Amino acid sequence: MKLNRYIDHTVLRPTTTLEDIKHLCMEAVEYDFAAVCVPPPFVKLSNTFVGNTTTKVATVTGFPFGYSAIEAKVAETVLAIVDGADEIDMVANILAVKNKDWAYVEKEIATIMPIIRNHGKVIKVIIESGILLEEEIVQCCELYAKYQVDFVKTSTGYAEKGATVAAVALMRANLPANIQIKASGGIRTFDFAKELIDAGATRIGTSNVVALMKG
């Protein structure tokens, strides 16, 4: 298993510096990681660092709580694309999910998807699985499958509970084969990353990349 091609090398701290971004991108290129995932203001800079390599540039929208208005997420998505992002990790409106406002959740993804597809980008929808009930995870999977998102992603890393093998397995059982799963949040060892991959994850979002690669 070539773990490097599963990894989104990630730094999303509000204290992130230019030097952090340079170091992140240089490591990602050195190890040939799938992507770097960076705060929106650093998308342009990250593109200059990764250059014409196979490492993509991802960023976040609606991060980290997901309750931004749809119009705000649209604006963030458009700006990220203009700045050169290849992949968008969008936090779903968890407030709407918890309040069973599925019409709003659907309106949100229905509004965003044409922008993603018209520009040939990749979207990963973060559902914050650690704070959802099983039935909520299943309903999210069914809804996002309807709109053919590229990935459903477990976590932001900011909730009290991150990725779990059980959540990834549940998502895999309720998504069509063409929709991938990104596991993130609390992934600090090679063994845990491998468990998540074995359960169905095809991307691993982590800031603990050295420990994973040494594992």
TrEMBL record:
SMART domains: DeoC. It comes from the Bacteria. The active site is at 89 (proton donor/acceptor), 153 (schiff-base intermediate with acetaldehyde), 182 (proton donor/acceptor). It is found in: Cytoplasm. One of its GO terms (biological process) is deoxyribonucleotide catabolic process. InterPro entries: Aldolase_TIM, DeoC, DeoC/FbaB/LacD_aldolase, DeoC_typeI. Its main location: cytoplasm. Its EC number is 4.1.2.4. Pathway: Carbohydrate degradation; 2-deoxy-D-ribose 1-phosphate degradation; D-glyceraldehyde 3-phosphate and acetaldehyde from 2-deoxy-alpha-D-ribose 1-phosphate: step 2/2. GO terms for molecular function: deoxyribose-phosphate aldolase activity. It catalyses: 2-deoxy-D-ribose 5-phosphate = D-glyceraldehyde 3-phosphate + acetaldehyde. Keywords: Cytoplasm, Lyase, Schiff base. GO terms for cellular component: cytoplasm. Pfam families: DeoC. The keyword Transmembrane helix does not apply. Catalyzes a reversible aldol reaction between acetaldehyde and D-glyceraldehyde 3-phosphate to generate 2-deoxy-D-ribose 5-phosphate. Belongs to the DeoC/FbaB aldolase family. DeoC type 1 subfamily. This is Deoxyribose-phosphate aldolase. The gene is deoC.
